Amino acid sequence: MTERTPGKQIHLAAHFPGVNSTTVWTDPRSRSHIDFSSFQHLARTAERGLFDFFFLAEGLRLREHKGRIHDLDVVGRPEALTVLTALAAVTERLGLAGTVNATFNEPYELARRLASLDHLSAGRAAWNVVTTSDAFTGENFRRGGYLDLAERYTRAAEFLATARELWDSWTPDGRQRPFAHHGRHFAIEGEFTVPRSPQGHPVVIQAGDSPEGREFAASAADIIFTRHGTLEAGREFYADVKGRLAAYGRDPDDLLIMPGVSYVLGDTAAEAQEKAAEIRRKQVSPQNAILALEQVWGVDLSAYDPDGPLPDIDPDPGSELVQGRVKITDPFAVAAKWRALSEAKGLSIRQTVIETTARQSFIGTPDAVAAELAEFVARDAADGFILVPHLTPGGLDDFVDRVVPLLQERGVYRTEYRGATLRSHLGLREPAGKG
């Protein structure tokens, strides 16, 4: 295949599979989500594919369904920053991104841990800032309680600003100064114990599609981790978020938009579609289909047949059978949408859940998938993608072996790492620091 004219460059990251319906645990190729060898395999595969970073999600409490542990939850996964620190020793260039909650942590302690990871990895650390608003998760912490939606973003914004004050308390030339922060949520002062790290600040990622999440990302994040189902939906989101940056004195290139996506490859388009359909059937078992329905309806639907029609009853917005998840804000609208789809296509409960809960997938031959990824970036629907494979830990192997070379031939993906830090991979400026 002849090499093509270079286009807008694609950024890629790898999401370690786990607590979601994407993972197919019943596949015989699925391995441990606890053994370090699994994390190492996926991270080294991503580095072999010249990915920007490895991304590790994390929750602070196991979800419950009807008072029992949610059957999709991962029990026993090690803490994210501990895993990433270990991976720093077995990788050289790959960025290391961990999810850490801004609701149930404190700025000084977390800033130290992130700065330490940045030092130990020679400038490859990233922090995915998330928040929690439910009292269910709060029960695991001394402070307990919860914050409403607006307040948790207010706390997260002050948390991040405070962490950056701590990182900036060491100047680029190695001078340390006392810090003092007195705000609504935090009142701390003293001296920060970790010198300025190789990137100045670890890269900041924010996940969310809500108006509050978009505004928070535009004001403070380096990457926004999102999801959208079509090219046009992606372009609309991209234009909206990029359009918010100027209000904060930022340029469009200061924030990268990277949706989480899945992919399925086949030697022919028909084979890829057949494989994708089989994967979706495994991801949404009959039991999981009913569980997904109960998250919308808020009532016990265990008596319903997953292969039968949707319930003809209205949702109960006051009920919560599943704890530890983001609650659906308008279950009536979701139920109406699902009913309309089911009636229009003659879908059963399970078929409806399969169709409505699928993550954006790129399905086809390696060349077709490479072309579609490049089109999304060229048409400003994304700056890159966080790939969410359905297998642990080998789910990324075929993409690196079969799609990455085609992206390189198209001139839209790097053929080598040109810098050492995650910021250099992403094309982000290093924070100036304060003299």
From TrEMBL:
Which positions does UniProt annotate for FMN binding? 99, 153, 210
Q: What keyword terms does UniProt attach to this protein? A: Flavoprotein, FMN, Monooxygenase, Oxidoreductase
Q: Which domain of life is it from?
A: Bacteria
Q: Which residues cross the membrane?
A: none
Can you give the residue ranges of the Luciferase-like domain? 30-378
Q: Which InterPro entries match?
A: Diverse_substr_monoxygenases (IPR051260), Luciferase-like_dom (IPR011251), Luciferase-like_sf (IPR036661), NTA_MOA (IPR016215)
Molecular function per GO:
monooxygenase activity; oxidoreductase activity, acting on paired donors, with incorporation or reduction of molecular oxygen
> Which NCBIfam families does UniProt cross-reference here?
FMN_nitrolo
Q: In which family does this protein belong, per the annotation?
A: Belongs to the NtaA/SnaA/DszA monooxygenase family.
Q: What is this protein called?
A: Luciferase-like domain-containing protein
Lineage, uppermost ranks: Bacteria, Bacillati, Actinomycetota, Actinomycetes, Kitasatosporales
